Description:
This protein is of the alpha/beta class.
Amino acid sequence: MTNGERPITGADTDWDAAAASFDDEPDHGLRDPEVRRAWASRLRSWLPERASDLLDLGCGTGSLSLLAAEQGHRVTGVDLSPAMVDLARAKLAGRDAAFLVGDAAEPPVGEERFDVVLGRHVLWTLPDPARVLRHWAGLLRPGGRLVLVEGVWGTVSPVGIPADRLTGLLAPLAGHVRVERLSDDEPLWGRAVHDERYAVVARV
């Protein structure tokens, strides 16, 4: 779990270097129609039915941003990697979406507030997730929701954030927290997976 005394986090990855091949993973690029349909269906169940303002933190190449935009939501994406942001902008060209280079922990959105804060596989990469969650909750309008897709990966040196830890961190912030286990939903990942994968929808 540690590299010396330092926890392994997403900061150990060169995301600019990873950008060119990032979409090769089935659940990143959503190029397979079945995988794409699976994520679109899940996302529709997590997001408001009406058109909403959505902040996609750690948006990567914008695959979930694109699904949200296709479902009628107005998207702002933030990623620390300029290369990822360039790919997201190209992927959503002509849509109601904007992408910013910035830290997901402190997104550069000023006083703007959102109906949804979405993060997939990003919270585990950030130091002090409790503080980050408080900040994200503060970016929501009244009645807004956090939609967080997380997990624990690996067996020898697992990384990630377990569902019970995340729900505990959300307890002081959210009136209603729902956990959906995703490990057994093979179409989401394009293959069978055996580690912990889940989504949390928390209404603030």
